[in-house]
Write a structure and sequence with these properties.
Layout: H1 15-29, E1 37-38, H2 40-47, H3 51-63, E2 67-70, E3 74-77, H4 82-106, H5 109-128, H6 131-147, H7 152-175, H8 179-194, H9 198-235
Antiparallel strand pairs: 1-3, 2-3
Helix pairs in contact: 1-3, 1-7, 2-3, 4-6, 4-7, 4-8, 4-9, 5-6, 5-8, 6-7, 7-9, 8-9
InterPro entries: GntR_C, TF_FadR/GntR_C, Tscrpt_reg_HTH_GntR, WH-like_DNA-bd_sf, WH_DNA-bd_sf
Domain HTH gntR-type: 13-80
Keywords: DNA-binding, Transcription, Transcription regulation
Length: 238
């Protein structure tokens, strides 16, 4: 059989995959806060699914680094620690620096339009002042740069950490609260790529990731100190 009649209808998404997609969206958007507790019973009731299906969905998210399983105590939304941020910053900067270099080498009119469209989406999101839209647009611009590298394996490796990078970006928007600053920083990122400046694009991408990484690490360490001091105040008798 040839032609369209030979094509098979797409398979329906499994229940555990659908539940994982719903949870993933809530986590990366910030609707479920980092470190919050997840219980199979409540999720099963909410989704109208069995606990086994919910457990399979949570296991999917464990492999993506978005959920952590606690032995004998349940599940937590992954929380980005200072050490996590340092590791992710180093990995992300390496991947995106290579992507920017390759993108600058092969930039053409179509690639330029794709970058400019992604940047315009970021600018509009910044003007609207919605953090979730800004995070979406931020991630979209970085994914566009990775795609323009034309390197399939680079894209596959980036996909493996994409959701963790999204959490990282969301943390970055908390640190850099001034939206125009976010736009300005991304202009500095894309400008050398658009100009075909290979060395400059690599340097700009690495600097972009490392600067936001350093800010997030400092932010998380300060939060850690505040939490420790608060606990000490509670435990220390007056």
């Amino acid at each position: 059989m040839t032609g369209l009649s030979a094509l098979k209808a797409p398979k329906k998404v499994s229940l555990d995959r659908a539940a994982a997609e719903s949870l993933r969206g809530a986590i990366v958007s910030g609707a479920l806060e980092q470190g919050s507790r997840l219980t199979e019973v409540k999720l099963a009731e909410q989704f109208g699914l069995s606990r086994g299906t919910v457990r399979a969905a949570l296991q999917r998210l464990v492999t993506e680094g978005l959920v952590v399983q606690r032995p004998y105590s349940g599940w937590d939304v992954a929380a980005l620690s200072a050490e996590d941020a340092e590791e992710l910053s180093a990995l992300r900067s390496s991947l995106e620096a290579l992507a920017a270099r390759l993108g600058a080498e092969r930039i053409d009119a179509a690639g330029g339009r794709a970058i400019e469209a992604a940047f315009e989406a970021l600018r509009v999101a910044a003007e609207n002042g919605r953090v979730d839209e800004l995070v979406d647009a931020d991630m979209g611009l970085h994914r566009t740069l990775v795609a323009l590298s034309g390197n399939r394996r680079l894209g596959e490796h980036y996909d493996m950490i994409a959701n963790q990078v999204r959490l990282y970006i969301a943390s970055s928007t908390v640190v850099v609260k001034n939206a125009p600053t976010v736009v300005e920083r991304h202009f500095d990122l894309i400008d050398p790529v658009l100009r075909g400046d290979v060395a400059g694009a690599e340097i700009a991408a690495k600097a972009h990731s490392m600067r936001s990484g350093a800010e997030i690490v400092a932010y998380l360490r300060e939060k850690g100190r505040e939490k420790t001091e608060s606990l000490l105040e509670i435990r220390t008798p007056l």
